[in-house]
Known about the structure:
By secondary structure, the chain is an alpha/beta fold. The protein has two domains: about 10-95, 2-Layer Sandwich (Alpha-Beta Plaits), CATH 3.30.70.20; about 110-495, Aldolase class I (TIM Barrel), CATH 3.20.20. It is built from 16 helices and 21 strands. The strands form seven sheets. The protein has an eight-stranded parallel sheet. The protein has a three-stranded mixed sheet with strand order 6-20-21, covered by helices on one side. Strands 1-4 form a two-stranded antiparallel ribbon. The chain is globular. The termini are far apart. The site of one iron/sulfur cluster has 15 residues, from loops. One iron/sulfur cluster binds near residues 54, 418 and 423.
Amino acid sequence: MSVIRMNPPEFRVIRDEEKCIKCLVCVRQCGFEAQQYDPEEDRVYSLDENCVACQRCVCLCPTRALRIEQNPVPYKANAHWTPEHIHNINKQADTGGVLLTGMGNDKPYPAYFDRLLLNASQVTNPSIDPLREPMELRTYLGSRPDYLGGEKDRHFGPTPLVPIETPIMFTAISYGAISHQAFEALARAAKAYGTLFNTGEGGLPEDLYEYADHAIVQVASGRFGVHSEYLNAARVIEIKIGQGAKPGIGGHLPGEKITASIAATRMIPEGTDALSPAPHHDIYSIEDLRQLISTLKEATRYTKPVSVKIAAVHNVAAIASGIARAGADIIAIDGFRGGTGAAPLMIRDHVGIPIELAIAAVDQRLREEGIRNRVSLVAAGGFRCSADVVKAIALGADAVYIGTAALVALGCHLCQKCYTGKCSWGIATQDPYKTRRLNPEIGAERLYNLLHGWSHEIKEMLGGMGINSIESLRGNRLHLRGVGLTETELKLLGVKHAGEGM
Ligand code: SF4
Ligand code: SF4
């Protein structure tokens, strides 16, 4: 066992001693024990090596005495052996373990949303002022008939369309991965705004069934918390096949995070590990998936649309086509920037494809096959602002899921240490001392405000394009232009280059 710390601290805590009043707020609030107090010397000091830059102390210090800086690492410049690679090698040489991380891929891959620009009306087809004229953001999710008066679902009979008041929903985040308070905030905000939240694979806590009418409930490979009441209470049922942050692998919530309440919700013994297998052990083909979709529809008497969530991977268009033909009503596609509570670093950063390319490819394929009407497409994975949402819809999505943005609204500062269970902000933790920091009512208000702000901005962008309904934008790629993209990228996205006319 090495006794030398090979890795220097990633961050430095700078304390202005003249401003510090030794209130010890930072000592109490830091979830990672980076802030310390020595009573003998009556001194507040910092352990830089513990700091993860979650910024809790900086935000709460009453005298603004704290600042956190990236610690400059004095390695000799080397474009190939970056400080990050050296840091990771040392970590693994210390532990022999898989590198873990939280939240989404942070590598500088192209963000196609930043290379797409929206159109605006000028003289003809005048723009619309959303403050003076009606503007429709309501979106209906589900399967549509092939022709007027036709069977809505040719395979298993019709399921109803589900309206949402804005094309933005909260993505799957399980109770267990996040605190009850954070989970409740998402549920409350979804209900208040008329949209949906997603239970993830951890079930729906009994005391939150009042929000079930706004819940998408997941049926994942571990089948945690899945029972008849759960399925029948929900608005939508989602079969989770894959996840953008960790395509192709399962999940693991360690036993120390399985409190009595989480155990009851997941229907597993308290303190035992919750292991989600990588595959569903009853799904090895599209026919198997079709069987599960059919079973869930039968179990809920065709009153719930069934969604299938997959990660955006190389063959995503063909996979989506199979899912649509298997009787799904909604396909949710999670791009490689999707967040998570815990993922192996190598998987998170090196597997999957960007959601922009995936959604364009899937929309195009389903249109070509004449089955686009059979499913709604939900895009997920790294939506940062309302413009990203508008661009995704123009590329072919019906609606989007947001996750990281919602957690940021609740206080998350993207320190990526969710897997430790020590989140100082009371989000990705089950420690009662920390979870109390997040008031679900205040959290819900902040989430509501976020939805409200983004929705209004979407109306402004639509109005600028002379469109008064979000459904008229879906797949309307003529309203997009690419900048700095290759011919292949433009072709895959199905957009023209900036400067080309209609
Ligand atoms: S929170 Fe600020 S004022 Fe209070 S002990 Fe820490 S650095 Fe000093
Ligand atoms: S949820 Fe908490 S632990 Fe996870 S990235 Fe955000 S602040 Fe860090």
